[in-house]
Design goal:
The protein is α/β, with parallel strands linked by helices. Among the domains are: 2-163, Chitobiase, domain 2; 539-608, Immunoglobulin-like. The chain contains 18 helices and 26 strands. It has an 8-stranded parallel β-barrel, surrounded by 5 helices. Strands 1-7-5-6-4-2-3 form a 7-stranded mixed β-sheet, covered by helices on one side. Helix 4 (183-195) runs parallel beside helix 6. The longest helix has 18 residues, at 356-373. 49% of the residues are buried. The structure holds acetamide and zinc ion. Acetamide (ACM) binds at residues 331-332, 381, 398. Zinc ion is lined by residues 281, 300-302, 338, 341, 343-344.
Length: 616
């Protein structure tokens, strides 16, 4: 079956390429589907194409409405839904009879034939993923809101797609504690998650530097905890009201994205302590943290008032998020205050705990039990392994994979998000030319190479790896444009890691398909990173002559360059052939797209040395 899929893909590529000069557009989907069989020709969606929805599945109507909303935003065509109790054999037909090839509720089968399109899945969610593929078969303007497409533009190439995800958990995280982003942007982020067939938005809502969720019982959390002093004496901050949270969760639901809140404890909680210092070991006072890093002040694990407060907070938060998983943080909790706090030490004695690590386990275990009474499953960063894992905890492995491996060996569920592969706050290119990042180096190719299931696990242990997630921490990301720049296209690479069968993953082909994907992101007005031209070295020393070769990192863009030290722009020289220099030079080059958008600049120094006398 897998071999067949590979052969089919080869065939598809050949057919796809040979079709270039015909009307049929090439198929370039991200993430790459599990299986595709390409026919010749196409079906054209027109205002006369009804969307037939089987009348026994009301959820499907919402999926059809979602599709219609996209088509109507991107084109001048209006579509209509018709309920039906049988296969109409024409038009666009969504149903949930379920395809024969899989039992996966997220799988779907799509067939585009001469007189219609059928999407069949076991669930409306599966049909939704079929719709995502269908949107990618249409021109990229369908992702925009400018009605750019006319009545003859909605051509869909004939194809059969049988598709299902490799992992059930396919997440993206966003830290809104260090910097806050408006609700409209959160919705755009959710749209990006959905278009990549990913299904979890991990919303990191509380931090040392800001508490971002309204809690009615504790108004000071947002009156005080949501605001920090800036360097110039001003205030930075804000928060989401419960109504805004409900609005986001509802929006995400319509895109089959589950929203997982994170309420950090026991560490990363200075903003809460600034509002309610009695929850700390020392009693404070505290101010909402202004600098990044790890704070020593954390919730006191000895005082009952801490747990009363947290249970009240959780009561309100669980009511807002229907997802069964709930993230409680658990990372980077220094123990220095607990070591000298009479209340914490008493707790250690009373509970027969060995040390402060076991006190942390006690803390997490108590919270887990409380969450269980609300039918929520606890997720925590891998530090929750220290001192013993809570009974049913899911571990999010971030300090590499070792925490995830240890948890899987203890038969606990695992979400992989190792910083070395999936921290999208790391540099994605040369730190000298990239916008400031937290550090690290994580080019897209490395993301693409990630394998979430460690080989060291046994077959039964491997089943505990639910999937993977990209994390966007925002210490150095203060604008929505920069979130987009850091997240994309690395998130596109991750989407194939978590969706596409391992044996179909191929970086060269991914880059080729990404060419079409960039156009979709353009239509959505996403500020993704454009890769700069690739050079072997940025400093050359030569004697007589040097031939400089630049590699274009994007198919559908030019390299523009200057040799007079000025910044290249869309009017600068176009690079076509190697450049030959016989004296010192500084070459500055950029990738410039047809839209005029361009990459960061690479600077290449060419330094001609005087030859040694015996070489003259
Ligand atoms: C983390 O990056 N501190 C989970
Ligand atoms: Zn204490």
């Amino acid at each position: 079956m897998k071999k067949l899929a590979i052969q089919l893909i080869g065939l598809i590529l050949i057919i796809g390429l040979s079709n270039c000069n015909k009307e049929t557009p090439e198929i370039k989907l991200v993430p790459e589907p599990a299986e595709m069989i390409i026919g010749g020709g196409q079906y054209q969606i027109s205002a006369r194409s009804p969307i037939y929805v089987s009348d026994d599945d009301p959820e499907l109507v919402a999926v059809a409405e979602y599709f219609i909303e996209r088509v109507e935003a991107g084109s001048t065509i209006d579509l209509e839904i018709q309920l039906i109790d049988h296969d109409p054999g024409k038009g666009i037909y969504f149903h949930t009879d379920g395809p024969a090839f899989t039992d996966n509720p997220e799988g779907y089968e799509m067939e585009v034939f001469g007189s219609g399109i059928t999407i069949n899945a076991k669930t409306a969610k599966g049909v939704f993923y079929g719709v995502q593929s269908l949107l990618q078969l249409l021109p990229p303007e369908v992702y925009g809101n400018q009605k750019k497409l006319g009545s003859r533009d909605l051509r869909v190439p004939k194809v059969i797609i049988r598709d299902e995800p490799r992992y059930s958990y396919r997440g993206m995280h966003l830290d809104v504690g260090r910097h806050l982003f408006p609700v409209e942007f959160i919705k755009k982020y959710i749209d990006l998650i959905a278009m990549h067939k990913m299904n979890v938005f991990h919303w990191h809502l509380t931090e040392d530097q800001g508490w971002r969720i309204e809690i009615k019982k504790y108004p000071l959390l947002t009156e005080i905890g949501a605001w920090r002093e800036t360097e110039d004496g001003g205030k930075y901050g804000g928060f989401y009201t419960q109504d805004q949270i409900r609005e986001v969760v509802e929006y995400a639901k319509s895109r089959y994205v589950d929203v997982m809140p994170e309420i950090e404890l026991p560490g990363h909680s200075v903003a809460a302590l600034a509002a309610y210092p009695e929850l700390s070991c020392t009693g404070g006072p505290f101010e909402v943290r202004k600098s990044w890093g790890v704070a020593s002040d954390v919730y006191c694990a000895g005082k009952e008032v801490t747990f009363e407060f947290l249970e009240d907070v959780l009561d309100e938060v669980v009511g807002l998020f229907p997802f069964e998983y709930f993230h409680i943080g658990g990372d980077e909790c220094p123990k220095v205050r607990w070591e000298v706090c009479a209340d914490c030490q008493k707790r250690i004695r009373d509970e027969n705990l060995k040390n402060e690590h076991e006190l942390q386990s006690y803390f997490i275990g108590r919270i887990e039990k409380y969450l269980a009474t609300k039918n929520k499953r606890l997720v925590g960063w891998d530090e929750i392994l220290e001192g013993g894992l809570a009974a049913n905890a899911t571990v999010m492995s971030w300090r590499g994979e070792s925490g995830g491996i240890a948890a899987a060996k203890q038969q606990h569920d695992v979400i992989m998000t190792p910083n070395s592969y999936l921290y999208f706050d790391y540099y994605q290119g040369n730190p000298l030319t990239e916008p400031k990042a937290i550090g690290g180096f994580l080019p897209m190719e490395k993301v693409y190479s990630y394998e979430p299931t460690p080989e060291v696990l046994s077959e039964s242990e491997k089943k505990f790896i639910l999937g993977a997630q990209g994390n966007v921490w925002t210490e150095y990301i203060s604008t929505t444009e920069k979130v987009e720049y850091m997240a994309l296209p690395r998130m596109s690479a991750l989407s194939e890691v978590v969706w596409t069968p391992k044996e179909l993953r191929d970086y060269e082909k991914f880059i080729y398909r990404l060419g079409a994907h960039y156009a979709r992101l353009d239509a959505m007005q996403v500020n993704y990173r454009i890769p700069p031209p690739v050079v072997e070295e940025e400093n050359y020393v030569f004697l007589r002559e040097h031939e400089l070769i630049l590699h274009n990192a994007m198919d559908e863009a030019d390299i523009r360059y200057t040799i007079d030290g000025t910044e290249p722009n869309e009017n600068s020289l176009i690079y076509t052939d190697p450049l030959v220099f016989d004296k010192d030079a500084i070459v500055k080059a950029r990738t410039v797209m047809k839209s005029g958008k361009s990459s960061v600049t690479v600077s290449i120094n060419l330094d001609k040395q005087a030859p040694q006398p015996d070489l003259q």
